[in-house]
Amino acid sequence: MMECISIYIGLAGIQVGNACWELYCLEHGIQPDGQIRSDKTVDGGDDTFNTFFSETGAGKYVPRAVFVDLEPTIIDEVRTGTYRQLFHPEQLISGKEDAANNIARRYYTIGKEIVDLCLDRIRKLADNCTGLQGFLVFNAVGGGTGSGLGSLLLECLFVDYGKKSNLGFTVYPSPQVSTSVLEPYNSVLSTHSLLEHTDVAVLLDNEAIYDIYRRSLDIERLTYTNLNRLVSQVISSLTASLRFDGALNMDVFEFQTNLVSYPRIHFMLPSYAPVISAEKAYHEQLFVAEITNNTFEPSSIMAKYDPCHGKYMACCLMYRGDVVPKDVNTVVATIKTKRTIQFVDWCPSGFKCGINYQPPTVVSEGDLAKVQRAV
């Protein structure tokens, strides 16, 4: 088995978590109450569910996930939302007071009161795994809980589960859009913990995702639900190789091996293509070469950063859907020949490719079109 435990910390982490589990349930044919859909059959040897779900004695599937916040509002939304029957009540942990976006209060005082309870719940989930691979940690370093409690939890996980991989999905403050004057301070102070206690950190930025949505889908009035559904597609694609079959299946924790040149240089920039509406999808071919080239456009990167100002150290292309290795090899060879992207001198051929046969799944009321392939 290759189980992963997901930990969602603070407002941003929990909202991303809601979008992720909505998508995972659709991909695996699991209903909001944890039961398998009647049209979905599970073979005796099919253990794809077990990466992210554990099966109860009653045949219900429960996520291997913990949701943590220091004030109850957002956790209460999960407790009363569409997927309230999916999660085990013990996995939804909330405190009683907010700490007003202050990383120090979350790290030194309020966070200390709740961290032991969180670790106890994580330990129960870990004991229920036969071959725990590692942890996926979701938080925003601009907020108080995501930065303070997030840093504290990462340190504790590093001490208790030092041999297990830690993959972080971190929302950083945007250059122009800010929700709090304390965001820069919180993010600077919590970056040290990401440097020391995560193996790979995937950086996300709300402003960049806003711009991708506006440009690709022509939607002006966006909510965080829109953004989180796009983020969940990226996370689903990264973890698809753990859950489904493929020609060049790549373990998500191989990132550490293939992308991290030096232990402290482990910050990744994600990109996803195609981001396209249903109306446009009918008129486009979306070949492998086209979607691959789209991912290298600066406007497709989910953080406000222009790759023209630097060089790549390594690159991982994770395809899903109707993709064959021959097409991937051709595209990569073309990129290398044209020198479309510049690599550092000491890592001239830094491409790692993965192919998964499961095509992207989309939420029925979402904005993204259902496509045959994505990268």
Detailed description of the structure:
With 375 residues, this protein is of the alpha/beta class. The protein is 39% helix and 16% strand. It contains eleven helices and twelve strands. The protein has helices at 10-28, 72-80, 103-127, 144-160, 183-197, 206-217, 224-243, 255-259, 278-281, 288-295, 325-338; strands spanning 3-9, 53-55, 61-63, 65-69, 92-94, 132-140, 165-172, 200-205, 267-268, 315-321, 351-356, 373-374. Strands 5-4-1-6-7-8-9 form a seven-stranded parallel β-sheet, with helices on both faces. It has a three-stranded mixed β-sheet with strand order 11-10-12, with helices on both faces. Strands 2-3 form a two-stranded antiparallel sheet. The longest helix has 25 residues, at 103-127. It is globular and about 55 Å long. The model has no long low-confidence stretch (mean pLDDT 88).
Class derived from helix and strand content:
alpha/beta
- Distance N to C terminus: 26 Å
Gyration radius (Cα, Å) is 20 Å
Beta content = 15-25%
Taken in chain order, the helices and strands follow as EHEEEHEHEHEHEHHHEHHEHEE
- Mean pLDDT across the residues is 88
Instruction: Give me the side-by-side strand order of the main sheet.
Output: 5-4-1-6-7-8-9
The largest pleated sheet is described as:
7 strands, parallel
**Tally of DSSP helical segments:** 11
Q: Which stretches are low in confidence, meaning pLDDT under 50 for 5 or more residues running?
A: none
Helix percentage: 25-40%
Outline type: globular
| Total number of beta strands | 12
GO molecular function: GTP binding; hydrolase activity; structural constituent of cytoskeleton
GO biological process, one term: microtubule-based process
Domain Tubulin/FtsZ GTPase: 49-246
Domain Tubulin/FtsZ 2-layer sandwich: 248-375
